[in-house]
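Example S7 (structure tokens).
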């Protein structure tokens, strides 16, 4: 009986020892896993910090760099006929010198309608001289009636825009451009101002409605309308 009791005691001791070893091994594995997990977390944190540090300078750099504004496209020059030589524009030094001496543009409040006749005579003189290198009027008429009429239409539209916007000064300026190009059209068509003045005098005292009704039917047919404004 004593021997049997000793064997049982020895067996219990062995079982207890094995259990203790298993518990110690389990604790070691758990500790190792925890350590490994903590190391992975540290690596993730380090990667995130490095990424943030890499992004910050890039963001600062973008903030410092100013986006360049798109440059306005230069307006294409109107084509010239082969017989008209191209003329270079004024140099920057010339423009600066003119800016120092020329007075700011101011529109006078008084004027004389006789300036229209003088302007017509000047444009006619430019047409006769044919100097397309020094005269804008001569150059414009050298391009043909279509171009003269097109330019008059452009100036009329610009004048209308200024009037609609309520810009009184702009309307005055554009009206001057419009009248000038109208005189160029007269010169190109061989019309003298006196002819237009005579037509205006003929219409004096006549109702606008009656005058329109008396217009030749050919005009209405050419305009492709039954009513003229």
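Recovered sequence:
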């Amino acid at each position: 009986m004593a021997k049997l009791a000793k064997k049982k005691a020895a067996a219990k001791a062995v079982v207890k020892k094995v259990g203790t070893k298993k518990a110690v091994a389990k604790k070691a594995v758990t500790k190792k896993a925890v350590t490994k997990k903590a190391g992975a977390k540290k690596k993730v944190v380090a990667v995130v910090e490095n990424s943030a540090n890499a992004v910050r300078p890039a963001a600062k750099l973008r903030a410092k760099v100013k986006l360049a504004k798109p440059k306005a496209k230069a307006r294409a020059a109107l084509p010239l006929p082969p017989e008209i030589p191209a003329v270079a524009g004024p140099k920057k030094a010339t423009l600066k010198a003119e800016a120092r001496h020329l007075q700011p543009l101011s529109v006078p409040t008084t004027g004389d309608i006789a300036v229209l006749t003088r302007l017509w005579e000047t444009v006619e003189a430019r047409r006769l001289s044919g100097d397309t290198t020094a005269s804008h009027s001569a150059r414009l008429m050298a391009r043909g009636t279509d171009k003269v009429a097109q330019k008059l239409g452009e100036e009329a539209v610009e004048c209308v825009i200024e009037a609609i916007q309520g810009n009184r000064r702009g309307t005055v300026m554009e009206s001057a451009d419009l009248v000038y190009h109208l005189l160029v059209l007269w010169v190109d068509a061989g019309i003298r101002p006196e002819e237009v003045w005579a037509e205006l005098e003929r219409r004096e005292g006549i109702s606008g409605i009656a005058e329109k009704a008396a217009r030749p039917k050919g005009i209405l047919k050419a305009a492709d309308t039954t009513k003229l404004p």
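Notes on this example. The chain has a mean pLDDT of 74.
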